[in-house]
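seq as requested:
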Amino acid sequence: MFRIFLYSTALFFLSESSVCAQSLEFGGMLGGSNYHGDVAYNLHPNESQFSGGIFFKYNFNEYWSYRPTLSYLKISGADHNFSDYKLRNLSFRNSIYEFSHLLEFNFHPFSNRDIHKKITFYATSGIALFTHKPEAQLKGEWINLSSLGTENENYKLLQFSIPLGGGIKYALNNNLVLGFETAWRKTFTDHLDDVSYLYADVQNDNGSINTLVDRSWELTEDGRPLASAGEMRGDHNLKDWYMQSVFTISYRLTPIQCPF
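struct tokens:
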């Protein structure tokens, strides 16, 4: 599937070199990102983080567009935001780098022609390839969780997701387009937060506490963890999601007319 993703990207750009009549846009976006998973069963405003990106857009017609996009999203979560999970006391942050193939569908005809609308709502979806790196902070230091085996599981840091969302865009003039977009990403991993199923060994071989497997020791009076190896740490039946809400601005090139 990864090869298909790369081939489709290359074929599209190669085919564009022979197109005479085209409608192209280049742009960027800035906004926020958030996540839904084992460490945040609801979106929490305290965990809203920075997101941004750049994109290229090819407008097939006034309704359909294709948009390759390169994005950076930061997500985080913490049990202390939810009373039901405070004693588990897990937290994380994750930096996501994403490349996506997206299609946009405009609900109103939208172009730089005078007969078309200057504003429209639109829907977007496609497929994305992303890398991620879950980390947790301990004594002021950020530690890579994927290498620790907190649940005796190895998981891949290169993953696919399916973006699902929509937005609104407005043409300031023939060239500049402003917009706002929100899109969820359905993933096929439960490890964006490094929390999925069962606790690994809470104690190291020398009897010391494995401090990042179970962090409830930070809240107990005797400094001992509450969980034991094999007890439930997360719900592996529910995959993680992440989302992005951004303002966009793009520059629309005037279509090039083919000579006879």
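The longest strand covers residues 91-106.
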